[in-house]
């Protein structure tokens, strides 16, 4: 076919329509921040959904996603929500619990029997009530709860029993409840910012850390730890939160659109993490890492004994309601 001016114009128009929609084409570009790597589904699911939020709001809203702590640590981006310097974040429930204690219960160790228990919790009236309590306290709006994965302990030795963790210096995120599991089994929890964990393990500042398998892969912790011990001590999740100044500046239609699209983002990464968890055990073994099955019951017994102790930021009624879900 001869490339006449008319055909060249048509071809150019076709190419332009095939280009991905960018947030800068929206009237307002929201800043969406998190601490996870650009290679992880938290990032890709959010980036891909920019086109969806633009379509849902007739281009009134788009978002740019900032991964890998580029806008600050998890503590800092939580604080930025209320200041309006960040519009949307992913965050752990224990970080949100700094502002409203009861919401942290979903991130406590051995709080859920299995994935199904957790999945029923996130769709429950109890979670809705806790999310509303957080909003009433902070002004920030929780849209979604998505699966982050079962957290496991990595180390440079096999860990089979709670006694194997005695005196172990283990990195934990900088939120009090992450210390519940290590302290219950006699380890020494050491808060370190997420971006600094690899170097801390490499230099021996800490002996161990704990995270889900996809995160261990993405952050390359397997390069500096010889063993992955399948403790599954936290069925962990990420809250997606829109900052109060941003949420309150939107009309009802755009609020509804944000709720809907961010729920879809959460469902997207939940499915990806579930799939990844199934595949990664054999992948780590291929890298020369020992993946150790663990009898979890002694760990469960040690932690459940302190579930409603001094670290608890929830009341007995909330705890009992959560445990009764699915029973």
Automatic annotation (TrEMBL):
Subcellular localization: Periplasm
InterPro entries per the UniProt record, alphabetical: DctP_fam, TRAP_DctP, TRAP_DctP_sf
Signal peptide: 1-23
GO biological process, one term: transmembrane transport
An example Gene Ontology CC term for this record: outer membrane-bounded periplasmic space
Matching CDD domains: PBP2_TRAP_Siap
Superkingdom per UniProt: Bacteria
Matching Pfam families: DctP
Keywords in alphabetical order: Periplasm, Receptor, Signal, Transport
Family designation: Belongs to the bacterial solute-binding protein 7 family.
Database matches in PANTHER family: PTHR33376, SIALIC ACID-BINDING PERIPLASMIC PROTEIN SIAP (PTHR33376:SF4)
Protein name per UniProt: Tripartite ATP-independent transporter DctP family solute receptor
């Amino acid at each position: 076919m001869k490339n006449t001016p008319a055909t060249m114009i048509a071809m150019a128009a076709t190419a332009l329509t095939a280009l991905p929609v960018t947030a800068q084409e929206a009237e307002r570009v929201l800043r969406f921040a998190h601490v996870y790597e650009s290679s992880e589904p938290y990032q890709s699911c959010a980036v891909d959904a920019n086109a969806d939020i633009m379509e849902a709001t007739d281009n009134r809203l788009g978002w740019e996603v900032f991964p890998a702590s580029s806008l600050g640590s998890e503590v800092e981006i939580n604080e930025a929500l209320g200041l309006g310097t960040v519009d949307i974040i992913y965050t752990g429930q224990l970080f949100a619990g700094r502002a409203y204690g009861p919401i942290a219960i979903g991130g406590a160790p051995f709080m859920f029997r299995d994935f199904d228990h957790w999945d029923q919790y996130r769709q429950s009236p109890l979670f809705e009530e806790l999310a509303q309590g957080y909003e009433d306290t902070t002004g920030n709006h929780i849209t979604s709860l998505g699966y982050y994965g079962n957290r496991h302990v990595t180390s440079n030795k096999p860990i089979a029993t709670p006694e194997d963790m005695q005196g172990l210096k283990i990195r934990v995120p900088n939120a009090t409840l992450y210390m519940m599991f290590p302290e219950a089994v006699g380890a020494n929890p050491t808060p370190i910012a997420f971006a600094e964990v690899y170097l801390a393990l490499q230099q021996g500042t800490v002996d161990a850390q704990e995270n889900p398998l996809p995160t261990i892969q993405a952050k390359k912790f397997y390069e500096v730890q010889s063993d992955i011990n399948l403790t599954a001590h936290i069925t962990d999740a990420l809250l997606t939160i829109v900052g109060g100044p941003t949420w309150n500046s939107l009309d009802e239609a755009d609020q509804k659109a944000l709720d809907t699209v961010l729920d879809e983002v959460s469902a997207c990464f939940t499915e990806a993490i579930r799939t990844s968890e199934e595949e990664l055990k054999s992948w780590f073994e291929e890298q020369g890492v020992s993946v150790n099955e663990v009898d979890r019951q002694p760990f469960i017994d040690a932690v459940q004994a302190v579930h409603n102790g001094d670290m608890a930021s929830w009341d007995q009624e909330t705890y009992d309601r959560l445990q009764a879900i699915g029973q």
